[in-house]
Write a structure and sequence with these properties.
Order of helices and strands: HHHHHHHH
Number of helices: 8
Radius of gyration: 16 Å
Helix content: over 70%
Number of strands: 0
Number of domains: 1
Structural class: mainly alpha
Largest sheet: none
Shape: globular
Strand content: under 5%
Distance between the termini: 14 Å
Length: 166
Amino acid sequence: MVLDRFRGMWVVFLSFFAAFVLAIFSLPDFLPDYIAYARPHWVALVLFYWIISLPHRVGLVAAWISGLMLDVLQGGLLGQQALAFLVIGYIAASSYQRMRMFSVWQQAMIIFAAIFVAEMILFVIDFMTIDRTWKFLYLLPSIVSALLWPWVFLLLRHLRRRFNVD
């Protein structure tokens, strides 16, 4: 009975682990600095997928914990990413039934909006703490994440069906 409840959850944990590794993976030194702005929010994409796919298993608590873990891994202000992921998690959890009916590209537009809002939260916190100035490069993570969403969605859906995660 207990094993049925947690069946397939290792796939969820493994996908989050892979997203954390991709999030903290450092870029080569020969790349220009502005390329770092184009890094997608891997953890947010994985979080969004699992919330709309398994809302009874992955929710706002997972969003908060994954944000805190990313804060610790990246050495940022504790709670900064957690707040941003909580907003992303709320957007996903409140619209998961509608999201399932949308095409993947329509979902990508919502991903763009959710990650853009999260980026604005991170910018405001950075502005208040370290006096950062606005650049249009802050839009790149939202755009790149939205463009990668169809492939992330298809990969995670394949894994969910293959290993019968429910």
